[in-house]
Amino acid sequence: MKIDQIAIQFFTLRDHCKTKADFIETCRRVREIGYRAVQISGVDRTIITEAEIAAICAEHDLVICATHEDANEILDRPVDAIKRLEALGCDYTAYPYPVGIDFKDEGSVASIIARLNAAGKLFADAGKVLTYHNHHHEFQRLDGRLILERIYAETNPVYLQGEIDTYWIQYGGGDPVDWCRRLAGRLPLIHLKDFRITSDFKIEFCEVGSGNLNFPLIIETAEQSGCKWFIVEQDSCPGDPFESIAKSFHYLSGLISS
User: Fold this and answer.
1) Residue 90: phi, psi to the nearest 5?
2) What is the pLDDT of residues 22-34, one digit of tens each?
């Protein structure tokens, strides 16, 4: 992992991206921390256009490495999502969340897998890459098999690749290192999100390096699997999210050998 491969997922900073002025200031602060790449998500595109997002990021020397697009749009109107990627100058996006999917129903599971594969073909044909962002839902078993296993086994690797989320894999009872290995050659993106048990025995999100996950081994294995972007995400922060993302960046920077 190189310093310029560490990105921040703007969903973490969504409360600071509500206006164009907010977005500009957020980009400034992100670059000041040291990040050189961003994933666009949680940004209200009714108040700021793709062209403006691209220009502001370029002005702050930030690469747009990936996005999250609306789940229904990816499946129902993938051409619209592709056009947005083109406007942002970005090659990667992710199906962000299984909206309206009944993972207990074979027909529902089979349908989303087929639709992801079909949408992914359109992305691939346009020179873009559709990935799948997991939560813990996909660690349910249907007929004895993990649904996340089925999603990858029953889609074409060219059409659907991985954006694994380390926290949600752990939360679902999986092993992030194992999933990095499983997706060798199919893992361009990874969400680095730490997992911690509090003193009152609750599970919480925390800054990368502040929890229980073995990030040196996760990152090493993801690199071996061809990962291009190591994206920090923290769904909720205990205080100022800029302080949290700075802690994560400084920890990850310390893992980079000179």
Assistant:
1) -125, 145
2) 999 999 999 999 9
Question: What DSSP state is assigned to residue 2?
Answer: -
Task: Match 């559709």 to its residue by tokens.
Answer: 130
DSSP H or E segment with residue 177: helix 176-182
Provide the 3-class DSSP secondary structure of residue 50. helix
* 97 token code pair: 């969340």
Instruction: State how far the Cα of 183 lies from the Cα of 62, in Å rounded to an integer.
Output: 27
Please report the pLDDT score of residue 4 as a whole number. 97
- Give helix 20-33 / helix 50-59 axis angle, nearest 10°: 30
Contacts of 258 (CB under 8 A, 6+ apart): none
Burial class (CB in 10 A: 0-12, 13-18, 19+), 112: buried
Per-residue pLDDT averaged across 115-139, rounded? 98
Q: Which residues pair with 93 in a beta bridge?
A: 67, 130
| pLDDT tens digits, one per residue of 177-217 | 999 999 999 999 999 999 999 999 999 999 999 999 999 99
Tokens of 176: 């992030």
> Which burial class, exposed, middle or buried, applies to 181 when counting CB atoms under 10 A from its CB (0-12, 13-18, 19+)?
middle
Cα–Cα distance measured from residue 101 to residue 118, given in angstroms and rounded to the nearest whole number = 17
Take residue 136 and report the two structure tokens written for it: 């813990």
| DSSP secondary structure letter of residue 235 | S
Strand partners, 190: 164, 230
Gap between the Cα atoms of 162 and 181, Å rounded: 12
The dihedrals phi and psi of 6, each to the nearest 5 degrees, come to -85, 120
Specify the pTM.
0.97
Could you tell me which residues come within 8 angstroms of residue 125 by beta carbon, excluding any fewer than 6 positions away? none
